[in-house]
Amino acid sequence: MARGRRNDIGIDYGAIERSKGEAVKAKIAVLAGDGVGREIVPEAVKVLKVIAEKYGHTFEFATADIGGQALDKFGVPLPNDTLTLAKQSDAVLLGAVGGPRWESLEYSLRPERALLGIREALGLYANLRPAKVYTTLVDASTLKREVIEGIDILVIRELTGGIYFGKPKGIEKLPNGQERGINTEVYSTEEVRRIAKVAFEAARKRRKKVTSVDKANVLESSELWRKVVIDVHGSYPDVELGHIYVDNAAMQLVRNPRQFDVLLCNNMFGDILSDEAAMLTGSIGMLPSASLGAKVGLFEPIHGSAPDIAGRNIANPIATIASAAMMLSYAFQLEKEAEAIEQAIVKTLDLGYRTKDIQGPGTQTVGTVEMGDAIVKNLNE
User: Fold this and answer.
1) Which of 215, 236, 261, 357 is catalytic?
2) 8-state DSSP, 326
3) Active site residue: 125, 271, 330, 353, which one?
4) Among the options 247, 308, 336, 350, which is catalytic?
5) What is the mean pLDDT of the chain?
6) Are 333 and 6 in contact (CB under 8 A)?
7) N or C: which end of the chain has fewer CB within 10 A?
8) How far is CA 133 from CA 107, 172, 278, in A?
């Protein structure tokens, strides 16, 4: 397949290009990772296999270790072979990494460093995290129905800059014997410009409203962020732009979430606020994500490895299955197939199937595998 197209949110990246109606042949790197990642990813793969068979596509799945599993086998969280596989694939499906068993390791060896490493190596600077409430799950949220009913928010998080990547960083010893931890929040004009363009392009296809989140009243990096976002907005006069401090954004997300359309965030603010947005939908197990950039796209649920429930067949696979739908849409231009997965999820929920995290009165509580099976069944009907 030809590669290198410009997708519908303005990012040039290595997605498959195809003619309308042409079957897709693609290689997908499957990185299950740790904890519940090893349970939810197989369910998404199961759904993708059904899509391939039903619509005449060919998906080759190649697995590799990442995170704690890779540490145990190879001594590093992101082995060269795993990164090579990712670079040579058409898309990456990722589960989750980390867990308490690795928390005592040197910081550079912890499983979470694999996420930062693969994002940087693949040039994945734009993270898209949609948060919408399924009608049948309105009562699963801890917030009142009148607050969250009908929300449809897209959090766009800058993914390769900011405090997670800025230097200097580390822990240093002081002359008095104490230690000092250092992390640097840093952004360049171009880093802000490119993620702002993604937000405005996305808003044009939605309700044409961008709310940029910063802390410009106390942080110089946020002052630059706001200045550049305003400058980029000049090319998008049809899109409304608003600014909000991150602390107020956190409050407004639970006070009046329907006011938001596209939330544009730096790396750390987007990390935190998207998790908060997840709980508007009833469970963090419901939110998918797509990480895009100059090369191969990576698709993963926004939740972590949840080691406390791993191996018990109770994890919610919907976020991972929905991430697979985002892969079909963004990486392979398979909009009809992506919509088929979304409709299968909706039908499954409408029929009352629930994993433990979203269970409620009158619903049928099922396990991880059973939820995947139910979605597959509704996908085939």
Assistant:
1) 215
2) H
3) 271
4) 247
5) 92
6) no
7) C
8) 37, 45, 9
**What residue spans of the chain are helical by DSSP H?**
37-55, 68-74, 80-88, 112-122, 145-148, 189-204, 220-233, 246-255, 267-280, 318-330, 335-350, 368-380
Of 197, 204, 246, 238, the closest CA to residue 221 belongs to 246
CA 115 and chain centroid, separation:
12
Candidate list 8, 139, 152, 275, residue with the active-site label: 275
Residue 164 a catalytic site member: yes
For the stretch 6-56, pLDDT in tens is 455 656 544 566 666 689 999 999 999 999 999 999 999 999 999 999 999
247 is catalytic: yes
To the query of whether residue 275 is one of the catalytic residues in this protein, the response is yes
> What is the residue-wise DSSP string for 133-187?
--GGGGGGSSS-HHHHTT-EEEEEEE-SSGGGT-SS-EEEE-TTS-EEEE-----
For the chain of 381 residues, list the mean pLDDT of each consecutive stretch of 10: 48 58 92 97 98 97 97 96 96 96 89 92 94 87 87 95 94 95 97 97 96 98 98 98 98 95 98 90 88 90 93 96 96 95 96 93 94 97 82
Catalytic residue among 13, 125, 164, 353: 164
Q: Is 271 a catalytic residue?
A: yes
Sign, CA dihedral 115-205-19-324, equals positive
On the question of a cis peptide bond just before residue 168, with omega within 30 degrees of 0, the verdict is yes
Q: 8 catalytic, yes or no?
A: no
